[in-house]
């Protein structure tokens, strides 16, 4: 498809983002939400849909949702109600999901994202509370679908954007902003690959300049930020191609196939009336007081944009470095813990932005899985700052720390990398190098001052790399200038 044809149309995208909350118990039942339990062990009669069981609201579900609402500039409803969303599926034994419909607890917010240097404001229609369904497992039994209800009843928030997103790149930036905020609030770990952050997208196209919205499709099964971007790009192109060839876009739900890099039909898209929403009769309205709002506001942490600016002002960083460090809350925490131990932020940012991020990217891990603790990294930086090791030794020790739990100084000694700053050790080596190279000495004295590097190299070679090069420079210069 030519770029001219792509430019003829405008994409209209809205995202529905589900965040699994980090509460210790389920939304309406006193049972653990911890990940990784044996199937169907973290359940109660309520989770199993037994008749006569009554839900009890988890207060943290309310508080965490309000935190997200305040962090995304939403209004908070003083009164909101739960609703039953009715549908039949094997992993939903009650036959309905407790959610919110007409009265979401948070509404009319927005987020600003930056794409290609331009700030774009994306509206947030609503943030509401709901419970998760169970999990259907299709790949463990050749004849049957298995059901695990451990996840049934896990607290979720759904964040519904306005159809303000115009490109896959804007969608990516918006999703990344949501992840960043939930991490900073510590209400969700934001891990899309593990399902704690999930995204559905509503996509339509229209000729540029047209106000009327086109027929939309819904995209599901996008399990990474990049897959969201790829799926949106594919679907936009598919719809343009379809319309250009005289066809019509049908309203339907599509699954993204990451292996084939294309979408396939799941079902015709449901509307709200298909779910027969009605107020949840077993739960009272959620009442939010001003005192409760003030209390939750006081609990809000330093948010990403504020932290980024503080890094620029307090640590003298470039905005780009500050962004790279604060984009992930846990990486920013790691950085600041090391700074607290070392004192000087400059050498800390140097190694975190280069070596640490290199390892995280190469291994596809998070900073929480990084094998070098803040204490050990601080020790490595400190012995470098104290000139006990040189820069190449620092890199060698860092790579060894990824494999062993030993401290930096112990490894430096074990690998024979401790730098010598003892004049009595270096004096005879320096003197010997000068005496062995009379021609170079004469050239230096004739103005070839760059030869000091040659003499330093000779001393480093004869000391087997142990000499402190700065001290060697001072000693050689002093002797040659005599």
Please give a structural write-up.
This protein has 16 helices and 16 strands. It has 482 residues and is α+β, with helices and mostly antiparallel strands. It folds into three domains: 290 residues, no CATH class; 115 residues, no CATH class; 59 residues, Arc Repressor Mutant, subunit A (Orthogonal Bundle). The longest helix has 20 residues. The N and C termini lie far apart (75 Å). The mean pLDDT is 90.
* Average pLDDT metric: 90
Our count of helices gives 16
Rg calculated over all Cα atoms: 30 Å
Structural class per helix/strand content? alpha+beta
Q: Tell me the number of structural domains.
A: 3
Number of strands: 16
Spans of 5+ residues with little confidence (pLDDT < 50)? none
What's the arrangement of strands in the largest beta sheet? 2-6-7-10-1-11-12-13-14
Judging from the principal axes of the Cα atoms, what is the shape?
A: elongated
Approximate helicity band: 40-55%
What portion of residues belong to β-strands?
15-25%
Summarize the helices and strands and which ones pair or pack.
Elements (H helix, E strand, L loop, with lengths): L2 H6 E12 L38 H13 L3 E2 L2 E2 L2 E4 L9 E4 L6 E10 L2 E14 L3 E3 L8 E3 L6 E7 L6 H18 L11 E11 L9 E6 L2 H20 L7 E6 L4 E7 L9 E2 L6 E2 L2 H10 L4 H12 L3 H8 L2 H14 L2 H19 L10 H12 L5 H11 L6 H7 L8 H14 L1 H8 L6 H11 L6 H13 L1
Parallel strand pairs: 12-13
Antiparallel strand pairs: 1-10, 1-11, 2-6, 3-16, 4-5, 4-15, 6-7, 7-10, 8-9, 11-12, 13-14
Helix pairs in contact: 3-4, 6-7, 8-9, 8-10, 10-11, 13-15, 13-16, 15-16
